[in-house]
Write a structure and sequence with these properties.
Layout (H helix, E strand, L loop, with lengths): L1 H16 L5 E2 L8 E2 L5 H4 L6 H7 L13 E2 L17 E2 L5 H23 L7 H27 L8 H4 L3 H5 L5 H16 L3 H14 L7 H11 L3 H24 L1 H4 L1 H8 L7 H9 L15 H24 L6 H15 L11 H8 L3 H13 L1 H8 L9 H27 L61
Helix pairs in contact: 1-5, 3-5, 4-5, 4-9, 5-8, 5-17, 8-9, 9-11, 10-16, 14-20, 15-16, 16-17, 16-20, 18-20, 19-20
Length: 486
């Protein structure tokens, strides 16, 4: 039933992109292009990165990602020059697994084009077929996310219906390729819950090869291992994840090191994105940001440092909550908090990144009305975003219409974090724990594990019931000589 619900919402997700899949031109599929004239992608709300990437990253020419490069140009087609005077050379900007997924999708699209020249098949623009092939795989990945979430929900299996019927799917499931990572990441958590740490490491490593965020899952696992003393399974998962990630990346790293590192270079030089909290502050205050006078592609070093420090502080706060809570937090609660803090403090929060939170939120805080309210707010951000980017002065929206919805989205996520923390400190209010009859369905080795923090952990990082009694203070007794009578 949940798969059927998911298919309905995935179909809605495809339908919102359909207007951008109309093509123009005549002849074979490789001679036709998507009709995005007059900024159609914005006023039709159908924008998807998949369509422009097909041409921009040379997939339309059949070139191999990470090997092929091009020079960035401006709107008039003039080649751009970096801040240091060098040409602005670009490569495929995605992690290896996502880049190869695009390459395979391109190969299948070109195969269909070749077959349509030989057999009486419908002629479909090659870029549209590329989108459809990629979307089919992304739909399967999201169904895998639903399946994994249902497996992690334990007796509350219908909490996964929130993942299948999330309003975010309507606009974001086919905007980019993030569903690949969510499917692998949640399957990794399911393997962990079933006490298969090596398989969990393989799946988390594959997820990180598609999008780095699944690596964040290892942090909460380490924190819970410190609280329970169960390190072996976490070490096996972390080591397997690292080896898996390396095995996927190593061939591209060795053969095309410059192309492989483009993902990291791009993220280092990006400024505060329009959906970030930093841009919201700039919008309402007139502030020019941490690095106001940068050249083209010059890295915003101050902003990067602020983002890193903010995230570390947020993780430290989560670790403090995990150590001091009266009852060990559930793994899903900590996973949600870490990913939410990453998004809130990061300089980039692309709309599809919110998909990362959906399965984690359903497991961490299974209050359907609360989660649907957040997902609806988050989904609605897409509308003013598109009309803000729309260049028609008579129909586009001003900056603050968009940033107001972003602020509401951020407030909603902060509220979810506050509710999760409240239930960590008040486990009796946690619906998953069922009045103490259930501990941690997704915890795997941590489920029902007693607290056994290491001896070196200070008292202020222990729950109240495990703090060591301070040694009694003994005053030194001084010997006083007896007075001698004269």
């Amino acid at each position: 039933v949940m798969f059927l619900i998911g298919l309905v919402f995935l179909a809605l997700g495809w339908s919102t992109k359909a207007a951008c899949l109309q093509s123009t031109g005549t002849g074979t599929g490789d001679q036709r292009v998507a009709n995005w004239e007059n900024q159609r992608a914005y006023y039709e709300l159908c924008y998807s990165d998949t369509v422009p990437l097909y041409g921009a990253e040379l997939l339309s020419q059949g070139k191999f990602p990470y090997k092929s490069s091009w020079v960035e140009t401006d709107g008039s087609g003039t080649p751009q020059t970096r801040y240091d005077g060098r040409p602005a050379v670009r490569y495929m900007e995605y992690p290896v697994l996502t880049g190869m997924y695009q390459y395979v999708s391109m190969a299948l699209a070109k195969t269909y084009t070749a077959l349509s020249k030989l057999a009486p098949l419908p002629v479909v623009a090659e870029v549209v077929m590329f989108f459809n092939v990629a979307a089919f795989g992304l739909a399967l990945a999201w169904l895998a996310t639903v399946w994994a979430t249902a497996g992690l929900a334990g007796r509350r299996i219908w909490d996964a219906a929130l993942v299948a019927a999330s309003p975010l799917l309507i606009f974001q499931i086919f905007t980019n390729f993030d569903a690949l990572a969510t499917g692998l990441a949640m399957a990794g958590v399911l393997a962990w819950a079933r006490r298969k740490p090596v398989l969990a490491g393989v799946l988390i490593g594959l997820g990180a090869a598609a999008k780095l965020y699944p690596l964040l899952f290892l942090g909460p696992m380490v924190v819970l291992a410190l609280r329970t003393g169960r390190f072996r399974a976490v070490a096996r998962t972390a080591a397997t994840a690292a080896v898996t990630w390396l095995l996927v990346n190593l061939p591209i790293l060795v053969l095309f090191p410059r192309g492989w590192s483009e993902f990291f270079r791009l993220n280092a030089r990006r400024g505060d994105d329009m959906d970030s909290l930093y841009n919201v502050v700039k919008s309402f205050t007139g502030w020019h940001g941490f690095d106001p006078k940068l050249g083209f592609w010059e890295p915003p070093t101050v902003l990067n440092a602020v983002v890193a420090v903010s995230f570390v502080i947020g993780c430290a706060a989560i670790a403090y909550v995990a150590f001091t809570a009266p009852q060990r937090p559930r793994l899903a609660q900590l996973l949600f908090l870490v990913v939410a803090v990453f998004l809130l403090t990061n300089k980039v929060w692309s709309p599809q990144f919110s998909l990362w939170l959906v399965p984690l939120a359903a497991l961490a805080l299974p209050h359907r009305r609360v989660l649907l309210a957040w997902m609806t707010i988050d989904a609605v951000v897409w509308v003013p975003r598109m009309y803000y980017l729309y260049g028609n002065p008579n129909r586009s929206l001003p900056d603050q219409f968009f940033t107001t919805t972003v602020l509401l989205r951020d407030v909603a996520v902060v509220a979810l974090c506050a509710l999760v923390i409240r239930q960590i400190y008040r486990p009796g209010e946690d619906l998953v724990r069922w009045g103490g009859r259930v501990d941690d369905p997704s915890g795997g080795p941590f489920d029902r594990a007693p607290d056994a923090p290491p001896g070196w952990l200070p008292d202020w990082l222990r729950p109240a019931g495990l703090r060591r009694a301070s040694a009694p203070h003994h005053e030194a007794e001084s010997a006083v000589p007896a007075a001698v009578a004269p």
